[in-house]
Specification:
heterodimer, A: MetI-like fold, 2 domains, globular, disordered C terminus, B: 376 residues, alpha+beta, Rossmann fold, OB fold (Dihydrolipoamide Acetyltransferase, E2P), six-stranded mixed sheet, 22 strands
């Protein structure tokens, strides 16, 4: 009985691994290293990759800068409506990216909710590189903020109290105690968020368009190239796979401090599947 | 040296913490059962929570005053707080932990607490006793004017505890600072503190030196807490300053003092003598009871029955050759027993002392003057 059950478990695991791993392997079997390098030398590919890394990098910077204090606020304070606020911040997780794109267009497009205001300041957002960054921030930030809230919540509050009684004000406590103790969790959230931003497609194509060298990120270039030249599409896909794999390995290898947020690796593993 | 003046009310879930205490330089222990509000008091002094009413001041420096809307943030109060689980920063070394709140060099402090050799070690590599020394050094590195210790012994195992008690007492006393320590263990409190305030449900039920509490418990709780036996029964005055008590557990005893009605009788275990047989020629009270347990602790042993416990030299116990379940005679002098008022609802409400500061009369709302409920 035990053997049969173990066999059943093993079979489902094998199916999962093959199903999830096969597409990744397939891309590399159909494109050799030489071909990969040659395809990446094309203007379309280099433009798209550089643009992707640039926009997702800027987006990550903004997410860290704004998301970290916001997450700390949510993790350390209880107030009425807190759950509503958290739900709003998590909404992009479940929103179809295309819906996010339309939403951004309706809010920030030239005829959108804030379009007039932005116009008055001479800012045209839609179909610019800034729009790519905005779309990526919108879609990727919940991945970071969620993890950051959990990481800050996992820091023992008596350590924060201890810092205060030792003469550290709230800001020094934040930088000297909370940030270092939540660091591995924050880094895991940041890598996840960045990976999600790098793969952003739906919101970007609707809000920023797909102009080579201006708003065409790697996923958009893959889509464009797919109907013309599948080999370029596969080369780009291969690069994104390697990048994603690297990100995943980095996130898993991050050290975690004992006692404070040692479960961050587990949280990370869980949130990838959600 | 400044005196810490404390008059606070903090509402908790099922009761309010209400107390008025003056803490002169020296060690005061707040003792009481878990959940009595002891840690709340420390947090209020440190500024980690804001009382709903009252005033906290150290000499001329006012830390909290509800009426004048003063509430200093924790970092602006000169306190050194040692947390129950020590709350050492796990990402910092011992030296970095101690230096966290310090403005000067810390070498002398590390040496004083014998932790120089651990300077580069992280807290996860320390033993319980070492952690406690680091926590104490870190709290003192800020040169605080008030020292607070929350259950400083509870994270230590029994074997290190005894030694640590002996080491810490002199250090705390040598600081000559108002020091408040919280403990649920009377033994820890007695070893470390000069004065003890017994706190039950947020109020001080008795205040005195450890010796005074043992000798004259004013409530059944204090009697049990300090390790005394507590018998209850009905008292009847039979002569001048002599009363007879018919025990609820059976039997009758004579005690010094005048009492009528239902009373408690507190009796220190070391005042109880044991023997095999009843003595016909003694004035002592004698109760013959079956032994329920015998627990040796070094050269003293504790012999318990379901009514009384006696603490006797282990050597004497060996001579008697007692066994569990066998009857033993427990005897004590009438003068060794102390009367404790039972079911006295007023006694648990009284604060430890009236504030003699006339300017604080508004506090009389929730601080009642000390009641003298001792009966000699």
């Amino acid at each position: 009985m035990t053997r049969r059950f173990n066999f059943l478990l093993g079979t489902t695991l094998a199916i999962s691994v093959v199903f999830l791993g096969l597409p990744v392997v397939a891309i590399f079997t159909r494109i050799g290293p030489g071909e990969l390098v040659r395809q990446l030398g094309t203007d379309v590919a280099t433009d798209a990759l550089l643009l992707s890394f640039k926009t997702s990098g800027i987006a990550l910077g903004v997410i860290l800068l704004v998301g970290t204090p916001a997450a700390y606020f949510l993790a350390t304070r209880r107030f009425p409506g807190r759950n509503v606020v958290i739900t709003i911040l998590e909404l992009p997780l479940v929103l179809p990216p295309a819906v996010a794109g339309i939403g951004l267009f309706a809010a920030l497009g030239s005829r959108g909710l804030l379009g007039g205001t932005l116009d008055a300041f001479g800012v045209q957002l839609a179909f610019t590189q800034a729009a790519v960054v905005v779309a990526v921030i919108f879609v990727a930030s919940p991945f970071y903020v969620r993890q950051a809230i959990a990481s800050f919540e996992a820091v023992d509050t008596s350590l924060l109290d201890a810092a205060r009684t030792l003469g550290a004000g709230p800001a020094r406590t934040f930088f000297r105690v909370s940030i270092p103790l939540a660091a591995s969790g924050l880094a895991a959230g940041a890598t996840l968020s960045w990976a999600r931003g790098l793969g952003e497609f739906g919101a970007t194509i609707l809000f920023a368009g797909s102009l080579q060298g201006v708003t065409q990120t790697a996923p958009l270039a893959i889509y464009d190239a797919f109907s013309v030249d599948t080999r370029t599409a596969q080369a780009l896909a291969a690069v994104l796979i390697l990048t994603s794999l690297g990100v995943l390995l980095i996130a898993k290898a991050l050290p975690s401090w004992k006692n404070s947020n040692s479960q961050s690796a587990y949280r990370f593993g869980r949130s990838t599947s959600s | 040296m400044e005196k810490l003046e404390l008059t606070i009310r903090v509402p908790l879930r099922s009761f309010d913490v209400e107390l008025a205490l003056d803490v002169p330089p020296g060690v005061l222990a707040l003792v009481g059962p878990s959940g009595a509000g002891k840690s709340t008091i420390l947090r209020a002094i440190a500024g980690l929570l804001r009382p709903s009413d009252g005033r906290i001041a150290l000499g001329p420096a006012v830390w909290f005053d509800r009426q004048r809307k003063i509430h200093l943030e924790p970092e602006r109060r000169s306190v050194g707080l040692v947390f129950q689980d020590y709350a050492l920063f796990p990402h910092l070394t011992v030296a970095e932990n101690v230096a966290f709140g310090s403005r000067g060099p810390i070498d002398a402090l590390l040496a004083r607490f014998k932790i120089e050799h651990l300077a580069r070690v992280r807290p996860s590599g320390l033993s319980g006793g070492e952690r406690q020394r680091v926590a104490l050094a870190r709290a003192l590195a800020r040169r605080p004017s008030v020292v607070l210790l929350d259950e400083p012994m509870s994270a230590l195992d029994a074997s290190t505890r005894e030694g640590v008690r002996g080491e810490r007492g002199p250090i705390l006393r040598s600081l000559a600072l108002p020091t408040v320590l919280v403990s649920h263990d009377f033994g820890d409190a007695a070893a470390l503190a000069e004065n003890v305030a017994v706190i039950v449900d947020g109020r001080v039920v008795q205040y005195g030196t450890p010796q005074e509490l043992v000798e004259n418990p004013t409530t059944p709780f204090v009697a049990r807490f300090t390790g005394s036996n507590l018998l209850s029964g009905h008292a009847r005055r039979i002569a001048n300053e002599i009363s007879e008590v018919i025990l609820e557990s059976g039997g009758r005893i004579r005690i010094a003092g005048s009492a009528e009605g239902r009373v408690g009788v507190a009796l220190a275990p070391w005042d109880v003598k044991i023997s095999r047989d009843l003595s016909p020629t003694t004035d002592d009270n004698q109760l013959e009871l079956p032994v329920s347990s015998i627990v040796p602790r070094g050269d003293r042993s504790r012999v318990s029955t379901n009514v009384l416990a006696a603490e006797v030299p282990t050597r004497e116990l060996a001579r008697l050759d007692l066994r569990s379940g066998e009857p033993v005679v427990m005897a004590f002098a009438p003068a060794a027993a102390r009367l404790v008022p039972l079911a006295n609802p007023g006694s648990s409400k009284s604060g430890p002392r009236a504030t003699d500061d006339g300017g604080r009369d508004r506090l009389a709302r929730f601080v009642r003057p000390r009641r003298h409920i001792r009966k000699e």
